[in-house]
Amino acid sequence: MRADLIPEPMPEWPSGWSHADSATPEAPRPRPTEFQPPPNPTLPLAAVPLAAEPPPPAAPLSPWRRATRATTRFLTRPWFLALAGFFLVSAGWAFASPLATSPDEPSHMVKAAATARGEFINSTSRHEIKGGFEKTWLGYPLPAKYATLDAMSACFRNKFLSAACGKKFGTDDTIKIVETSAGNYNPAYYWPVGLPSRWLPGVSALYGMRLMSALLNSALLAAAVGVAAGWRRPGWPILGVLACGTPMTLFLSGTVNSNGMEATAAVLAWTAGMSLALDDDPRPGQVTRRAIALGVGGVLLANTRSLGVLFTLSVLVALAVVAGPRTLLRLGRNHTVQVVIGVLVAGGVAAVLWNRYSDRLTTQTLSFPDLTTGQVATEVFWNSGTYLIEAIGNLGWLDVALPPGTTIAWYAVVGLLVLCALGCARWRETLVLVALMLGTVLIPLAAQISEARRVGIGWQGRYILAWVVGLPVLAGLLVARRIGPALPDAIERRVPAVAAIVLGLAGVGAFYWSMIRYAHSGWKKYGIYPIEWAPPGGWVLWWAVFVAGLAVLVTAVAVRRPSALCRPPPDPVNGPG
C-alpha cells in the first residue's frame, strides 16, 4: 500500500475529554517565523518556508539621548509633578494674599520667628475674651517690628475695603516683648517655617516664611501622591489625594498657619495607612515605603494642634478595621512596620507631653461658666453645614467666602468617589466610610462640649480638615482596588483626569474671588477693575503661576506609568483579596 494512502492515527484526547465531545481540540499553530519540517518527504526543500531573519539590533543611544530619556522619566513621575504643582499653587496664594490675612497669621508669624530663635518659654501672658471666645497671649523677645504685623491687615479685615489701606511692615530691630495667641502651639511646624526670618531682611522675611510653609506642605502632599501612584490603577487614588487639596488647604499651605500642616500631614497619613490596609499584593519595597510615609505623616499630625494625637490614633484605628486580622498579622511581622510603630508611639508621647506643658501656660478659671451642654450642642449642630462649607474654603479672616460653583464642584467630585466606594466596599470598609462622614458632625460637637465653658464656642470648618481628608483618600483607593479591574480603560483613564480638571476650574474660581476681594473689596463688583491693590510683581504674574500649578496637578493625574497598567490583577478566586 502506498504510504500516502495510510490513514493518520486519531489524536490522543486530553484528560477529561471523550470521543462524544463535539469539538476536537486544535493543534497549536506554529509561528510563521519558525522552521517546520515538510509534511511530505517527497516535497522539495525549496518549497518549505524558511524562518524570517531577526531584526538588526537597535543602535545604542547616545549619552545625550539617554540623559534626556532619564530626565523625562523623572520629571513626569507623579510625585514630582505633584510637588511642583502644589508648590506653584501655594506660592500663588502666598503672594496674591496680602500679608497677615490668613486666620491669626500675625500671631503665627510671631510664634514662628520666636521658635526659630530658640524662644520656647514665654516671658509674659495675659487672657482676653473677645468675639465670644477666649484667647491667651504669650510674649517672646523679638525685634520690635514684629509687633506691627497685626496692623498690616487691621484696616480692611472684615470690612468692605480693599487691601490698599494696609500698613507696611515695621523697621525697628530693637528687642522687645511681642505677644502671640499661638504661643502654646507645638513648635514642630514653626521651627522650619520661621528660619527665613533669621536671614532675610524686611518684608522678605515674611514672604520667606510663607514660601517655607508652602514647600513643607507641598512636600507632604507630593509624598501622598507618590504613595497613591504606586497602585496598579493610580488615577483614582491620585484623584482622591488631589481632592484633599481644597482651596482652604492650599490657602493655609501658602500662608503661615499650623492648620495647613495638620491637613497635609493627615493626607499623607491617611493615604499611607489605607494603602497598607487595602493592598494584599504589594510590590517589593512598597510596604516599607508606605510604612515610612505613615510614620512621617502620623508624627507630624500628632505634633501640630491639640487634636492631632486623636487624629493620628483615628488613622491607626481605621487601618486596623480595614485591614482585618490576617493583613494586620502580615504587617506586624514586617521589621519596618515595627520600627514605625515605635516612632509613632514616641511621637505621640512627645505631643502629649507638649500639650500638658502648654496647658500649664494657659491654665485659668472658666471664661464662660454659664454655657450649658444643651446650648453648645444646639449651636454647633446647627452650624454643621457652615463648617462643611468652610472646610472647602472661607479664606482670609473668614471674610472671603468662595463662589457657590467652587463648593459645588468640590462636593461633586468627592461625592462621585464616595458613592462609587460605597457601592463596592466590603462591610469593614463601609464602616470606616460611614464613620468618616458621621465624624464631620460629631467631632465638632464633642470638642466644643468639652472646651466651650473654658474658651467659648469658636469652632471653624478648617479644624476638621485632618478628619475630612480621609474620606476622598479612602474612596479613591477603594475604587482602584475593588472595581478598577472591571472598568473600561477609557473610563479608568478619562474620568479621573476630567474630575481633576473640574477641581482645577473650582480652584480658579476661588483665586478669582480672593483677587477681587483684595483688589477693590469687590463683594458685589465681579469685574477685575478698578485695581486698588496688587501683590508684588502684579496680578498677571501670580495668575500665571497659579494656573501653571493647576495644569501640572492635572497632568499628575493623567500621567500613567506602563508598569502600573501592564501588571495583571490578582485572581479574585485563588489570589489574595
TrEMBL record:
Region of interest: Disordered: 1-63
A Pfam cross-reference name: DUF2142
Bilayer-spanning residue ranges: 74-96, 207-229, 236-256, 306-324, 336-354, 408-425, 432-450, 462-483, 495-519, 539-559
Signal peptide annotation: none
Coiled-coil ranges (or none): none
Keywords, in A-Z order: Membrane, Transmembrane, Transmembrane helix
Protein name: DUF2142 domain-containing protein
Organism: Catenulispora yoronensis
